[in-house]
Design goal:
It is globular and about 50 Å long. The protein contains 11 helices and 15 strands. Strand 11 and strand 12 form a beta hairpin. It has a single domain, classed as Vaccinia Virus protein VP39 (Rossmann fold).
């Protein structure tokens, strides 16, 4: 993609963003100032995230730069996390990437987190974000994959935020893959309490993750699952409609969330990107109605 096309794409995403689109001049300033900074400084740069947290970011790091431009890259989903979680909760970040959600959960809210990221280079970036926010006592970071059994699998390493379990294609050379230990969530949680919220973003391997956590799904402490169902499951032969059905059978409802109004919107099916699955809606509504406000771009929500 040419630089001009990439620029137009980024600016269009800012325009369409629920928060940044209301504060375009501030968001454009963030974008252009970041472009200048990362050309001068090639190493990771400490940048403000929320008013309580920071991210370590560098050029090309999609997991961080979207937050720099827009405040909260995945605004509706991150807004839900910030309004729902409490300091006494446990949050699981499965497919954490650089740990943006973990930083929000543990750095801004003060909840405990267990964070899973299989790719060594990305895991190092995750650790830097834990360290810069002084979250070592709040976050247990595991450099492992998550699946339906305790094993080892091969992962791609050259696809940034969309690295995934390798299919052994010719384009996935040994130089661009790594063998990683894989664990079951139910096994990990035998020594832990059950979470209140789980985020699952594993590029099509979501079915395997859920198959390894039946006890966790059944536990009443778990109120919210944020899961990416964008069709990537097809690469492994999985039907994401079955994930939807499984979560419904476990008492969850597919939802979306508006942080500005704090309204939960019930959906008939899952979305094209992330979908929130919620249960015990009265409990959740009480929490989010009483949550403190978040301020970004001089706007509180």
């Amino acid at each position: 993609m040419s630089y001009l096309k990439q620029l137009k794409k980024i600016l269009a995403s800012i325009d369409q963003h629920p928060l940044a689109g209301r504060h375009k001049l501030n968001a454009y300033y963030n974008f252009f100032f970041w472009q200048l900074r990362c050309r001068i400084n090639k190493s990771a740069i400490k940048v403000m995230f929320t008013d309580r947290t920071f991210l370590m970011a560098k050029k090309g790091m999609e997991g961080a730069t979207g937050n720099i431009y827009t405040g909260l890259h995945e605004f509706n989903d991150m807004g839900f996390l910030l309004h729902f979680l409490k300091p006494e909760d446990l949050f699981l970040d499965i497919g954490a990437n650089i740990g943006s959600y973990t930083v929000l959960a543990s750095g801004h809210i003060g909840a405990s987190s267990i964070t899973f990221e299989p790719i060594p280079s990305t895991f190092n970036s995750l650790k830097k974000n834990i360290e810069v926010n002084q979250l070592q006592n709040k976050v247990k970071a595991l450099q492992v994959g998550v699946g339906s059994e305790n094993t080892e699998l091969t992962f791609t390493t050259n696809l940034d935020s969309v690295n995934h379990v390798s299919l052994g294609k010719k384009t996935e050379s040994a130089a661009n893959t790594v063998q990683v230990k894989v664990v079951k969530i139910d096994e990990v949680l035998k020594q832990e309490r059950f979470p209140s919220m789980i985020k699952i973003d594993v590029e099509g391997f979501e079915t395997e993750v859920l198959n390894g956590m039946p006890a966790t799904l059944n536990n009443e402490s778990l109120k919210a699952i944020l899961i990416e169902l964008n069709g990537c499951g097809k690469r492994y032969g999985y039907d994401e409609e079955k994930i939807h059905e499984l979560l419904l059978l476990n008492g969850f409802s597919a939802c979306s969330y508006d942080p500005f109004t704090r309204n939960i919107i019930l959906l008939e099916t899952y979305g094209e990107f992330n979908t929130l699955y919620l249960r015990d809606l009265d409990f959740i509504k009480e929490r989010i109605c009483n949550a403190e406000k978040i301020t970004m771009f001089s706007e509180s929500f």
